[in-house]
């Protein structure tokens, strides 16, 4: 889990993803359309991908991807992120983390 915490704290927004996952693609697009440039960790292309996926599962990520971290804190998977977006609270999280300036 240390590797996940270290990676998640490197940028304001970090998305753990799989390159073949349609929900991961949708979440990445959501952030890009908000004007956010997240760090993307494609765990299916990472040498330590299996370890990262195991650590995400231990954090409670179900499914394990996409897993979104904002300001170094686990926000949730696709369902949670979409809910935050729809109710308007995702923008505040992004502003507070310094990922958005407007």
Structure description:
- The structure is a single chain.
- The protein is of the alpha+beta class.
- The protein has one domain: 3-Layer(aba) Sandwich (Glutaredoxin).
- It has five helices and four strands.
- It has helices spanning 2-8, 22-33, 49-59, 78-86, 89-96, and strands spanning 13-17, 39-42, 67-70, 73-76.
- Strands 2-1-3-4 form a four-stranded mixed β-sheet.
- The N and C termini lie far apart (33 Å).
- InterPro entries: GlrX-like_pln_2, Glutaredoxin, Thioredoxin-like_sf.
- It is found in: Cytoplasm.
- Belongs to the glutaredoxin family. CC-type subfamily.
Features:
102 residues; alpha+beta; Glutaredoxin; 4-stranded mixed sheet; 5 helices; 4 strands; globular
Secondary-structure-based class equals alpha+beta
- Tell me the strand order in the biggest sheet: 2-1-3-4
Examine the secondary-structure arrangement and name the CATH architecture: 3-Layer(aba) Sandwich
Number of strands: 4
- Can you identify the CATH class? Alpha Beta
The proportion of residues forming helix, as a percent range, comes to 40-55%
Q: Ranges with pLDDT <50 over ≥5 residues?
A: none
Name the CATH superfamily assignment.
Glutaredoxin
């Amino acid at each position: 889990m240390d590797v996940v915490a270290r990676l998640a704290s490197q940028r304001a927004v970090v998305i753990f993803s799989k390159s073949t996952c349609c929900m991961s693609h949708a979440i990445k697009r959501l952030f890009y359309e908000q004007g956010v440039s997240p760090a993307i960790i494609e765990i299916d292309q990472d040498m330590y991908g299996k370890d990262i996926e195991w650590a995400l599962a231990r954090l409670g990520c179900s499914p394990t991807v996409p897993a979104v971290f904002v300001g170094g804190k686990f926000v949730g998977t696709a369902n949670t992120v979409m809910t935050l977006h729809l109710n308007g609270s995702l923008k505040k999280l992004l502003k507070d983390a310094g990922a958005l300036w407007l």
